[in-house]
Amino acid sequence: MKVSKRVQQISESLTLALTAKAKQLRQEGVDVIGFGAGEPDFDTPEHIKEVAIADLKNGFTKYTPASGIPELKQAVCDKLRTENGLEYTPKQILISCGAKHSIYNAIMALVDEGDEVIIPSPYWLTYPEQVKAAGGVPVVVETSIDNGFIMTPEQLKSAITDKTVALVLNSPSNPTGAVYSEEQLRALAEVIVDANIMVISDEIYEHLLYDGVKHYSIASFGDEIKALTIVVNGVSKTYSMTGWRIGYAAGPEEIIGAMSRLQSHSTSNPTSFCQHAVITALKGDQSCVQRMLKAFDERRRFMIDTLNSIDGIKCAEPKGAFYVFPDVSSHYGRSFDGKKITNSMEFAEYLLEKARVAVVPGVAFGDDRCVRLSYATSLDNIKEGLERIKKALG
Ligand SMILES: *Cc1c(COP(=O)(O)O)cnc(C)c1O
Description:
By secondary structure, the protein is of the alpha/beta class. The chain folds into two domains: about 5-45 and about 290-394, Aspartate Aminotransferase, domain 1; about 45-285, Aspartate Aminotransferase, domain 2, CATH 3.40.640. It has helices at about 5-10, 15-25, 45-55, 70-85, 100-110, 125-135, 155-160, 180-195, 225, 255-265, 270-285, 285-310, 345-355, 380-394, and strands at about 35, 95, 115-120, 135-140, 165-170, 200, 230-235, 245-250, 325, 335, 340, 355-360, 360, 370-375. Helix 5 packs across helix 10 and helix 12 (about 285-310) packs parallel to helix 14 (about 380-394). Bound molecules: pyridoxal-5'-phosphate. Pyridoxal-5'-phosphate binds near residues 38, 100, 174, 204 and 247.
């Protein structure tokens, strides 16, 4: 049997072993506190669920147009106009099986063998793997805690070659929680327009913002940059709908058309009875989002303050998403119980074994100095988990 070269290159998740170990410990009855969650810990709001239940009862259970139902595309156009100042027609919208699927379609539609795609690190670990799956080459631009995990226009410029086809931008960011300001985005947009490359703008965390920080879509800074942008968004994170698998992309008709053709021959339509419910999520009562945000913000504050009070942990103040990404590297080189810790994987292993706390090693996101903790878990869990970490490092 032969596995394609394209797929052979896709790495196994570095975090898989650790997740499996945490799960095994739990099954053995050990109480492990998990900071690994990549999804909100709230239930999907009732008024959204009811729409899907009605669709199921009414038999809205067959194929829909492969690129999504027209009413949902219109609702996405309305959302992008009122919230992001972006004018699109329904032909410029593709509804996919989650934002991840939108990004996959975009990369498959943009990248030929050997083409380069620029990815600022720390990055969402899916981006480089999708680029490799398309036969492309991920070009990583490093940012660090010292510059707030923000890529500068100079860094972008010097990463661009004649093979560059696109940049993947993610603000607010997973894993760092960093949010690009209007000024920073405008400066990047200038470089992108000059170089005439595309940008895939992953805005899935746009509503999870704190301390009065505002989100801007890079596409909103003029017609030139808009013509080079594929905006990707979805309902997973904002409305706690990760399992529904609905996301969307907006962009120039030519590229959205190409992505739609690809989707029509791979997954076909996103699930029929999830689509009307997403219209309700986008257009209905938004107080559910405010409630969730309030809980996240309280946990975020507690987490930053507590982590920074632990010796040798340096935690920036994330302004978005639901993760913190502290630098723990000053603990590298220390020995605990006769075992030396030299990297984020070993650090995470140690916390799991000693403190019964699961965190995600930063190496998975391209930064081995850090680990990722999600605060999409209860404040009680956070208090107990951080207490254990403090003890284990003391
Ligand atoms: C969760 C996540 C997504 C995927 O969202 P889905 O709509 O559930 O596919 C995309 N990008 C980032 C950065 C994420 O963290």
